[in-house]
Design goal:
heterodimer, A: 281 residues, mainly alpha, flat, B: 422 residues, alpha/beta, D-Maltodextrin-Binding Protein, domain 2, 2 domains, eight-stranded mixed beta sheet, two-stranded parallel ribbon
Chain lengths: 281, 422
């Protein structure tokens, strides 16, 4: 086949797929969000934003992302550097660390619920050790902090591996010569990490962060399993508009708001971690 | 060499064709009821095995149930033969999309139910299929703490609060269980039990002084409620685990506890308030969508579901009670016997004040429930001022009533046009 046409032919299936299953539904959702049956309107957005739970769910979503993502970034960087220094058993460790990737959100939430609930593992363990007399209600409206922590823990456990995989691949791309040169000049491990790994890892960091931040705004099943109705998040509100209230317009409007937030943060990450042209490996 | 792949392809193609052909011959029973695996299996094996045609029984969550149904309506053709769901789900569907069922010659023995099933039109849009309600249940451990002079079959809300307080003190932790989780049916407690018992209404009296008292009482009760209740959905689980000793829930969401340990639990009527013993019968129905592929098969199936034998088999499978006159056999499962007795005491009590499920709200049923759930979350969980919350939520409620034009239903006094919030 003509070498000039070939790339276009190769990306055609993906383009078609995206067009049919992403762009077309996206246009439909956008239409729904801006209409209530009689032409263009912002009523859906007004409805959604004026609901008393909107500020709470927005705040919760942002708070969760603000706590979880930086921790995951630090953890995955640490894990990736550890793995990349290993000579034997590297694959085994990677497999084990990425197991949570294969578990669905809801299953992950339920696993952590089994730990935190009143008759769960944590309570049995603590009463077994004699720390407490009777099982405590950890996930209750009286302890919003614990609910938040449990959700954050479950999210960290579940989704750090996504970043880890990207960062491990990124570290693998950094030429060994840089480190060898650094050794020659006597740079410490920490200095090597700061001066070589981090800067060279920028494109991977960008990808990992964007992916993770966008996913953090879509957190839903873990929250539903652990927090019930105690910890409203934007995604949960979309679900309840769509399925409890059967209000497609409001659900679509809220979905667009989540999209706007995601785009905003993606742009920030792109700008902060931008890689100058020609500087990439 | 090329013959084998061709043959394989031909055979698998034929196999796929055959499965499709067989699948089309089944009547697809698309239901939101009998969802738990055991119940769905019992529906297939015990209830539908004797049906006139082979039935493909598919229970679903409300969301997917409605989404596929609406997709079929929009497409103008479909594969769903028969719909099974609650009254509230049907009232959200345009009656034009459902087949009129008057000429089938089957209906329930309750004029109220048959009237509801017309969905505001002059014709039967669905056939009442089975009924249930919400009751109270308690671990027998808790009975020793009943307040003096209290009759468990005729409790008042004050006595219930005193009882849960006694249990709280004796057990050292709150043991009242309330289904306030995301899938819990808490809104029905407010709409069918608390409000009718204290205000003799639901919509008209939403923000009345009596309603303020009702919420104050509920706060008192909440002080003795297991704080993990905001994660509870099916109270049978907490009864069995011992996390709750006294609970309120739907009969079918308590069944497992009674069936597993029939000697450990008692079922009893809901408590009474100043304006009577409010309770809410729940009605499920079966309908035929206009897009049903095999109309005759679907109608035969609807008739079959209403025969007394099928109704009893359904009762055994789901713990939902018949809607036609049947002779109850003696060997019913413990859950059915316990719940049946409690329901009979509740509806037969002198101060019974039945409240119907919200009707005429169309697709605003969810918004209506949310008014009550939001009031609960703000008043009880967030501790906001009752008067302020009710005045605030009142606006949303009257918007919904005006938008839908739904007239008042019992126990609210009848209205001309939309039910007013006073």
């Amino acid at each position: 086949m003509n070498a000039r046409i070939l790339p276009y032919v190769l990306i055609l299936p993906v383009t078609l797929f995206l067009g049919v299953f992403f762009l077309y539904p996206f246009v439909l959702v956008a239409q729904q969000a801006f209409s209530t049956g009689d032409g263009f309107t912002l009523d859906n957005f007004r409805d959604v934003v004026s609901y008393w739970k909107f500020p709470i769910s927005l705040k919760n979503t942002l708070l969760l992302a603000a706590l979880v993502v930086p921790l995951q970034l630090a953890l995955s960087l640490l894990m990736a550097t550890m793995v990349s220094r290993m000579h034997r058993g590297r694959d085994m460790v990677l497999y084990i660390w990425t197991i949570p990737l294969g578990i669905s959100d809801l299953a992950a939430g339920i696993i952590w619920l089994a730990i935190f609930e009143q008759s769960g593992f944590l309570n049995s363990m603590m009463s077994g050790l004699g720390v407490i007399d009777r099982p405590m209600n950890l996930l209750s409206y009286q302890h919003p902090g614990i609910v938040f922590l449990a959700i954050a823990l479950a999210e960290i456990w579940r989704a750090t591996a996504i970043m880890l995989v990207i960062l491990v691949a990124g570290i693998g791309l950094i030429p060994k010569e840089y480190y060898e040169a650094a050794e020659v000049f006597g740079a410490s491990r920490w200095k090597q990490f700061l001066r070589i790994t981090l800067p060279m890892l920028r494109p991977s960091l960008q990808t990992a962060l964007i992916l993770r931040v966008v996913l953090a705004f879509e957190v839903f099943a873990v929250v539903a399993a652990l927090g019930g109705t105690l910890f409203p998040v934007l995604m949960g509100e979309i679900y309840s508009y769509q399925f409890d209230l059967q209000n497609n317009g409001a659900a679509a409007a809220l979905a667009l708001i989540v999209l706007a937030i995601s785009i905003f943060f993606t742009l920030i990450i792109l700008r902060v971690l931008r890689v100058p042209k020609g500087a990439s490996i | 060499m090329t013959l084998r792949p061709t043959l394989t392809a031909a055979v698998s193609g034929l196999a796929i064709f055959c499965t499709v052909a067989v699948a089309q011959a089944d009547v697809l029973f698309w239901s939101t009821q009998a969802r738990p695996v055991e119940e769905a299996q019992a529906m297939r094996e015990k209830v539908l095995s004797g049906a006139p045609a082979t039935v493909d029984y598919q229970p679903n969550e409300d969301g997917p149930w409605l989404t596929r149904l609406q997709a079929e309506f929009q497409a103008g053709s479909g594969s769903i033969g028969v719909l099974g769901s609650l009254h509230g789900n049907f009232s959200g569907i345009d009656p034009d999309n459902l087949v009129d069922l008057d000429d089938l010659g089957v209906a329930s023995n309750s004029a109220t139910f048959n009237n509801l099933a017309k969905l505001g039109t002059g014709h039967l849009q669905y056939v009442p299929w089975m009924q249930a309600t919400y009751i109270m249940a308690a671990n027998k451990e808790a009975l020793q703490y009943l307040p003096d002079g209290a009759d468990i079959d005729a409790l008042s809300y004050d006595q219930l609060i005193a009882w849960t307080a006694n249990v709280h003190e004796a057990a050292g932790e709150p043991k009242f269980g309330f289904p306030a989780g995301p899938k819990g049916l808490k809104h029905r407690f407010f709409q069918g039990y608390l409000y009718p018992s204290y205000t003799n209404g639901v919509v008209r009296t939403f923000a009345s002084d009596a309603a303020v008292t009702a919420w104050e009482k509920f706060r008192e009760l909440w002080a003795h409620t297991n704080p993990a209740s905001t994660n509870f959905s099916f109270m049978q689980e907490q009864l069995l685990s011992g996390d709750a000793w006294i609970v309120f829930d739907h009969t079918s969401r308590l069944a497992q506890a009674f069936n597993e340990r029939p000697d450990d639990f008692v079922a009893f009527p809901a408590p009474a308030g100043p304006t009577g013993r409010g309770f809410m019968p729940v009605l499920a129905g079966i309908a035929i969508p206009k897009t049903a592929p095999d109309m005759e098969g679907a109608k035969e199936l609807v008739k079959y579901m209403l025969t007394p034998e099928t109704q009893i088999a359904t009762l055994r499978a789901t713990s939902f009670f018949p809607v036609v006159d049947v002779d109850m056999p003696d060997d019913l499962p413990p859950a059915v016997q316990a719940a049946g007795a409690a329901v009979a005491k509740m509806s037969g009590s002198a101060d019974a004040n039945p409240g119907l499920l919200p009707a005429g709200l169309g697709d605003k049923g969810g918004d209506f429930n949310r008014v009550f759930v939001d009031s609960f979350e703000r008043i009880v969980l967030a501790g906001q001022d009752i008067r302020m919350v009710l005045d605030d939520q009142k606006g949303r409620l009257s918007e919904i009533m005006e938008e839908t034009g739904a007239p008042c239903w019992a126990p609210d006094a009848p209205s001309d046009g939309a039910c007013p919030v006073e």
